[in-house]
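Entry 14. Ran structure prediction on the chain below.
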Amino acid sequence: MIEEKQTIKFTFSGHDTFHCRHLWLKKGYDFVKNGNKFSQLNAVLELGVGKNMVSAISFWMKAFGLLDNEGHLTELANYIFDDEMGKDPYIEDEGTLWLLHYILVKNDNASIYNLIYNDFRREKIEFSKEHFIAYVSRKIDENNLTQISKNTIASDFEVFVKMYTIPENIKDKEENLTGLLAELNLLHKEKLTFSVINDEKNNIPDEILLFSILDNDDFSNSINLYSLEHEKNQIGSVFAINRAGIVNKIEGIASDINFKKYGITYNDHAGIKELQFRDKPNKYEVLNIYYAK
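Output, structure tokens:
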């Protein structure tokens, strides 16, 4: 971990080189729900995985915002994974993957995801592992932070790639080696070069995008198009959506009958384009609309 300086804090490693597997979050949720702790001696037996994987599951539970700093399950964790009331306990809906991707980036408990989607990919459209290592090293120097091993940064990058891509050769068909978020097709690979391409992202559910917009206390009842497109942790950055895609989405949200009671409108007045709310909805009410479908 890099020491904090003012508001800057980078966190690398913690996953023991394991990317998050598809059933790990549900497995980790049930483990904690049953009163267990990842530090207990019998965690290996209870979870049915190796010791290093126990640490990795704990890491990913925090990275995806399912455990708080005290090790308690969060509202989001119960909302998705509870056996009785959970909306998608086994992550069978692609919308849940988009939601988890958003939380992973915004939470910044694993800094590589926040750095790449918010900043690095805008600086370098096509990039390699070496480019990213150089970028982080520069950021460390610019902010006078404690140095960190290039091998550690490289390991995080390799896990990042595994999280968003499908392995070229899977020898054991019974073992799920595909990264949890590979289905989103966000990361494109060409030999040793990678890219995250801004496009319209028509396949992202409107409700997931609206949840992500509402998950921000910095605006009251309106937010402008520029902020949605460019600001850190907003939909243009996190989901790699271009302006045309954002406009299409927010126009669709404004015209959706499910949202009429909130008085959501998209206005373009004197060149200032804004998404406005008469009554700002609760973000979980918006998710309820999606999962009710």
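The beta strands are 126-127, 187-190, 193-196, 222-224, 264-269, 272-277. Will compare against last week's run tomorrow.
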